[in-house]
Amino acid sequence: MNYLKILPYFILGTFLMVACGEGQDEEITYSYSSQIDEIVDENLRDSKFTGAVVLVGSGDDILFERAYGYGTLYNQNLYVIESPDSTTVDHLFDIASLTKIFATTYGLMALHSDGLIQLEDTVSVYIEEFSGDLHSEITIRHLLTHSSGLQQWFPTYYAIDSPGELVNWIVDLELAGTPGEMRRYSDLGFMVLAELIERVSGQNMEEYLYNRIYEPLGLTSVKFNPDANVQEKVVSTSHGNPFERKMISDDSFGYRIDVDPDSWNGWRNYTLKGEVNDGNAFYTFKGVAGHAGLFATAGELATLLQLILKDGSWNGNEIISPSTIEKFLTMDQFGNGLGWAMDPGFLHAVNLPEGSAGHTGFTGVNFVVSPADNLFYIFLSNRQHVGVDESGGYPELRSIREELSKVVFE
Fold it and tell me: Burial level of 270, CB count in 10 A (0-12/13-18/19+)?
């Protein structure tokens, strides 16, 4: 470990940094606030991340919201920068695979609520390229439940240069399995779902989400491609893409990708701030993708979860129908909802009330919502900012996620 990385945590060990957003008159407290503080502070000292925000809420209230540590602490060489950026609750985080929920799944719920799609329809009804023999049986439900048979992951930037090439490339790929046979978590499936949203709505996904969901809820910070030069409160993530690069170049790392590692070399080599960490989302999709790319504050994600707890209505207006929400949050044969994860093992959570749902994200984020208890929590962190360890991996956050779930739901 670089010993210059240790110094800030001597400070954090004796002084827990608590920051509230601008304009907040007082800190919002919660009965278990000291327990949450202890959990987060311990992980800060252990260099699991440098900055975090924890929010606990119900359908009507924010019960606890607190920021910790630094949004940006290191440069690309993992040396402490001259003026570290203290995290506030107004900071935007790269929410990685939470994009699958707060962008793509919400977009599909809106289309379903409006009667524009049916879950059992084959994808070919909306994307004609899927009418070929291999992909013609794939339904929207298959994509949402990760049971389409599509490959789980591939570095698309080694194969295509733009989003417009995605569909033709995917339908030329061999399937990894029979549609509906089993669950294989697939980023490629959610790339296709984003394309479906655009074809059905006639808008690009970013415009559709803003017009149909975010703007009616009064959201202004949830966005793709935030400008870190204008919006300074953006949390930094990784220093380039060392993990993803090793996925491709080192077969012993646990991933076997059939590409020549030297056939593409557009890797970033600087600290990422306001740029999506996920390589496919950045290199191929220019920051706007169905599987990753969204940035958000915990507070605005909370509004989206409160919409679910309010049966899809906001300020007297129905945004998403209750019947659609019920369908999407009904557990399937694989133990998950449509888009929404419900398997506690996948959620890294324990002692969850029945019917709880959520998701995790690779940058160090996750959330869980319990409609039965009218309660949710959001945990956002920048675990990638501390750099990879000797094996090439990022800090494991399962334990802190489990501890937070215990505190909130017990």
Answer: exposed
CA distance 40 to 282: 30
User: Could you say which DSSP state residue 262 is in?
Assistant: G
Identity of residue 316: G
Virtual torsion, Cα 315, 318, 326, 210, nearest 10 deg? -90
Buried b (16+ CB within 10 A) or exposed e, 342-373: bebebbbbeebeeebbbbbbbbbbbbbbbbeb
Quick check: 221 and 92 in contact, CB under 8 A?
yes
C-beta of residue 272 within 8 angstroms of C-beta of residue 237: yes
DSSP string, 115-182: TS--TTSBGGGT-GGGGSTTTTT-BHHHHHTT-S---S---GGGT-SSGGGHHHHHHTSPPSS-TTSS
Q: What is the pTM of this model?
A: 0.93
Over the stretch 228-257, which tens digit does the pLDDT of each residue have? 877 779 999 999 999 999 999 998 887 888
Instruction: Using the Cα atoms of residue 348, residue 282, residue 263 and residue 134 in order, give the sign of their dihedral.
Output: positive
- Cα separations in angstroms, 212 against 6, 112, 318: 46, 12, 11
Give the whole-angstrom CA distance, residue 82 versus residue 73: 9
- Spatial distance between the Cα atoms of 358 and 370, rounded to a whole number of angstroms: 9
Token pair, residue 206, equals: 């970013």
pLDDT value of residue 147: 98
User: 333: which 2 tokens?
Assistant: 């044969």
- For residues 336 and 329, give the distance between their C-alpha atoms in angstroms, rounded to a whole number: 8
Give the N- to C-terminal CA distance of the chain in Å, as an integer. Answer: 36
